[in-house]
Give the backbone structure.
Amino acid sequence: QVQLVESGGGLVQAGGSLRLSCAASGSSFNPNAMGWYRQAPGKQRELVAAITRGDNTNYADSVKGRFTISRDNTKNTVYLQMNNLKPEDTAVYYCNLVYSALRVYWGQGTQVTVSS
């Protein structure tokens, strides 16, 4: 069993930055892929960024050039650095670890609010 604890969300003005962290415990930290998703009110959850075990990254078009996903295996942690935030980035952000099709874990979510 894997537990994920997210942190780093909050309220920021447009143009500001935040760094989200997702710390994993309970298993060896070597998932096939890790990702950050977000869900705004009334909208479906969407992929924001992902990174594979081989360090290949993928970003939603809306965040390319502004967000960076990274990980620190020594700390069992995945990060999402968010720069130049926009009001439309306001959402609950969730981290996700994928070990296999049957082993997918989600964090509890952290609120990010960007004021204009």
Q: What stands out?
A: The mean pLDDT is 94. The CA atoms of residues 94 and 109 lie 4 Å apart. The two ends are 40 Å apart (CA to CA). The chain is about 0% helix and 55% strand.
